[in-house]
Amino acid sequence: MKKFSTAALVLALGATAGAQAATPSGTPDSGRCAFLQNAPDQHTVVRGDTLWDISGKFLQHAWCWPQVWGLNREEIRNPHLIYPGQVVYFDRTAGRLRLGVPTGSAGAAALQTVRLSPQMRTEGLGQQAVPAIPSNAIEPFLSQPLIVGENDLQDAPRIMATEGSRVVLGKGDKAFVLGDLKDGTSFQVFRPGIPVRDPDDGKIIGYEAAYLGTVKLEQPSSSQDQAHAFRVVTIKQEMGIGDRLLPVPPTPILSYVPHPPERDIGARIASVYGGVSQAGQNQIVAINRGRADGIDLGTVLELYRYGPIVKDPTEKRGWFSGKKQVKLPDSQYGSLFVFRVFDKISYGLVMQVTDTVQIGDVAKSPQ
């Protein structure tokens, strides 16, 4: 499968003149975006850092970095870049994070603030620039449909035979395909997926297609009743007769800037990618809210486990224990970073968690 550039995921940190400054106890969203009591004075950026990791060294909530840098939603659509060797330092007087370069050996006092004017910079982005989140965790999901309608794959080209009557295709094997390729030459292979149900009402809100790998056209057919010859380029899961082909889409050019939703969102975990029931950090989950509900790229939600309903053993009514049922508070245990949005479903990367993510758990607006 094509290797997607991390340049599309790169975000940068920059101080913006005239933007609203944060207070020492936090940003304009003071309760939400507070600095850690033991935050360091500075951090030198090294290869392998992400903006989420860097911000987590200073902030109670790592996703708050655009706010403590004083960047508004318009300014962070085209941010500057940050590279290894630069220094992020905590200006405690202003309650701000700033980007600098070392100019001597006197520590933070010798840091020169970097103020970059907006400009295009493309050279070396994929190799050097620091990404916002662990980009390798989501790159494979940026171009895969993930969610398809019930009939989306019905008319897609299909594998109808294999060379040597192989049951399972491997890398380099030949597959024979019937269907209209519409002049395409590179395709992703899918198997019709399992239904994804809304945890709230049990209704089907989409079908999760199983991504199997990629194939490349070697010999197109000369007539409608002749099969095309394809070669398997990459394999992720077993591929065989009956599986469907969809064209490889263009590389997405997207920026992911963490932010809370503009209105209150109350979602639930609808599925864990891969057909399992639990997820951990840097795994992919789907929620039962999407574009129609106000979710967009970069939306951050907090993960909660429903508090159980228990009987109160301390209450007494007459001669008998009352056993009144009481709901315990929901417990917050992590955060979710949305990176792909459909109408009714969104996919998110599980970030810092202290427990496993389970289907049915709550994902809602940060408090």
**What best-fitting shape do the alpha-carbon axes yield?**
flat
The percentage of residues in β strands lies in 25-35%
Structural class: mainly beta
If you average the pLDDT, what whole number results? 76
Indicate the topology.
Layout: E1 42-44, H1 51-56, H2 65-68, E2 87-91, E3 96-102, E4 111-113, H3 125-128, H4 139-142, E5 147-148, E6 158-162, E7 174-178, E8 186-197, E9 204-219, E10 228-235, E11 244-247, E12 266-272, E13 278-279, E14 284-287, E15 300-305, E16 309-312, E17 316-317, E18 320-321, E19 324-327, E20 331-341, E21 346-353, E22 357-358, E23 362-364
Antiparallel strand pairs: 1-2, 2-3, 3-4, 5-9, 6-7, 7-10, 8-9, 8-11, 9-10, 12-14, 12-23, 13-22, 14-21, 15-20, 15-23, 16-19, 17-18, 20-21
Please characterize this protein's 3D structure.
The chain folds into 3 domains: 6-139, no CATH class; 146-247, no CATH class; 266-364, FlgT, C-terminal domain (Thrombin, subunit H, Beta Barrel). Residues 1-30, 72-79 and 103-127 have low confidence and may be disordered. It has 4 helices and 23 strands. Helix content is 5%, strand content 34%. It has 367 residues and is mainly beta. It has helices spanning 51-56, 65-68, 125-128, 139-142, and strands spanning 42-44, 87-91, 96-102, 111-113, 147-148, 158-162, 174-178, 186-197, 204-219, 228-235, 244-247, 266-272, 278-279, 284-287, 300-305, 309-312, 316-317, 320-321, 324-327, 331-341, 346-353, 357-358, 362-364.
Brief description of this entry?
By secondary structure, the chain is mostly beta strands.
